[in-house]
Amino acid sequence: MAILKRHHAPGMPPEVYDQANAAVAESEMGADGFVAHYGVAEGPGITVVEIWDSQAQHDKWFDANVRPLLPPGTPEPEFWEIRASRTK
User: Fold this and answer.
1) Predicted pLDDT at 18
2) Would you tell me the crossing angle of helices 55-65 and 14-29 to the nearest 10 degrees?
3) What is the layout of strands, in order, in the sheet containing 3-10?
4) CA-CA 20 to 30 A from 68: which of 9, 18, 54, 74?
């Protein structure tokens, strides 16, 4: 079942997100189970919302590619099962 991930990094400057995003974008695009990525400035920090085919596929890619780039103390992502989806 597809999942939606929300990951808020409080206090992360947009420039730091931009660098990390650029470093992992190609890998993420080729990752098994990856569907979509959205990064937004939210208050004092960055929030990433992604869609993956499964949390296990996300976790495998995330742990190898993103986790090493995060500052200590960054909260863990949150996940929800997608019940319905529509795009234009």
Assistant:
1) 94
2) 120
3) 34-41, 45-52, 3-10, 78-81
4) 54
* Degrees to nearest 5, angle at CA 16 with 15 and 20: 115
C-alpha to C-alpha distance for 45 and 40, rounded to whole angstroms: 9
Which contiguous run of DSSP H or E holds residue 12? none
pLDDT tens digits along 30-76: 999 999 999 999 888 999 999 999 999 999 999 999 999 888 888 99
pLDDT recorded at residue 3:
98
Structure tokens that stand for 59 in this block: 């976790």
Distance CA(17)–CA(10), nearest Å, equals: 11
For residue 67, give both structure tokens: 């986790």
What's the residue count for the chain? 88
The residue behind tokens 């890619």 is 61
Task: Identify the sign of the CA torsion 69, 73, 74, 76.
Answer: positive
Phi/psi-derived region of residue 73, left when phi > 0, alpha when psi is between -120 and 50, beta in every other case: left
